[in-house]
């Protein structure tokens, strides 16, 4: 082999290439970790037009920054940073990007709470269930967890149907058997059942002034599951 000049040239070229790759790697590693690229600024903003955050606090942001090993401008792990901010209670989505030469921009999209989900969670306008604290006065939803998106859609439909009566929903439930029940803020409970729920509610609204409003007693419960009318007490 040592007499084979072609083999020797091949080995020499291979060793030279390996040495060059290792040199490039070491130089790159040294340059990347130079103190010339410190991460000096992190701009945290909301995803709305004015960039403000409604629920995420400065203390929560500082806690994330302190808990993460950010590195410098070139070594910071953008995905790890995104995941760290995504764990905050009110955060729905996060995007992170480098801002040359020494900064990061973190954009946080916050949940918009539509209702309470039972007694220990919230549901957003997109039907996402999330755990966060809120002192807002919100309607309450109860149903199977997989039904949260459907309940958000039906809540909007039901409220539009009730609008002519100036009534609003305080509590709405969907049973495991897919039966709907609506509690109005006036105290009235509407039993809608499992079928034709929108048509039943529309019929109630249509007949309200001609029947329910004419009664001298205050109603607490209306069963709309009858095909030609409803029962009330």
Automatic annotation (TrEMBL):
Function, as annotated: Essential cell division protein. May link together the upstream cell division proteins, which are predominantly cytoplasmic, with the downstream cell division proteins, which are predominantly periplasmic. May control correct divisome assembly.
Top-level division of the source organism's lineage: Bacteria
Protein name, UniProt field: Cell division protein FtsQ
TM region(s), chain numbering: 12-32
Family statement drawn from the similarity comment of this UniProt entry: Belongs to the FtsQ/DivIB family. FtsQ subfamily.
Subcellular localization: Cell inner membrane; Membrane
InterPro entries to which the protein is assigned, alphabetical: Cell_div_FtsQ/DivIB_C (IPR005548), FtsQ (IPR026579), FtsQ_C_sf (IPR045335), POTRA (IPR034746), POTRA_FtsQ_type (IPR013685)
Residue span(s) of domain POTRA: 37-111
